[in-house]
Design a protein that fits this description.
- The protein has about 150 residues and is an alpha/beta fold.
- Helix content is about 40%, strand content about 20%.
- It has a 5-stranded mixed sheet with strand order 2-1-3-4-5.
- Helix 2 packs parallel to helix 6.
- The longest helix is centred in the first third of the chain and has 17 residues.
- The termini are far apart.
- The relative contact order is 0.16.
């Protein structure tokens, strides 16, 4: 029963909640959570504007929080859920931190790491398309509102 509740959709929903928070703060709406077992041990949402830091992406903040929680730079037994396909900077951090599984919602054709041509993630399980529509929609809505 627990596995039915704490599945990829559940944790992506938690990442999506963080993306909504980012949008409310005027940040690009991307959220991320790191899960160990069935527990969220790290979370983040884009804060590049707030922190005036181009590296303050959701994934980077979630990885740092999870590493602090586990007191380890490696996250081999963890799953990272992120609402949008990671950029190459974040993909590098995911690889270096040895995340065991990466799950993302919507593809990012402009800045995504492009899993088909990347040599990254030889040991990381990759899953895409989890809650794809709501993850893509929040990005579309955010940028549409910014263009007005």
């Amino acid at each position: 029963m627990l596995d039915e509740v704490f599945n990829d959709e559940y944790f992506m929903g938690k990442a999506l909640d963080l993306a909504i928070q980012a949008a409310e703060e005027g940040e690009v709406p991307i959220g991320a959570v790191v899960v160990h077992g069935k527990q969220i041990i790290g979370k983040g949402y884009n804060q590049t504007e707030r922190l005036n830091d181009v590296t303050a992406h959701a994934e980077m903040l979630a990885i740092t929080a999870a590493s602090d929680y586990l007191n380890s730079k490696y996250l081999e037994e963890c799953t990272l859920y992120v609402t949008i396909e990671p950029c190459t900077m974040c993909a590098g951090a995911i690889q270096w931190s040895r995340v065991g599984k990466l799950v993302w919602g919507a593809n990012e054709p402009k800045f995504g790491f492009n899993k088909t041509s990347s040599g990254l993630f030889t040991k990381t399980e990759l899953v895409s398309g989890i809650l794809e529509e709501p993850c893509a929609e929040i990005m579309k809505s955010f940028f549409k509102s910014r263009r007005k």
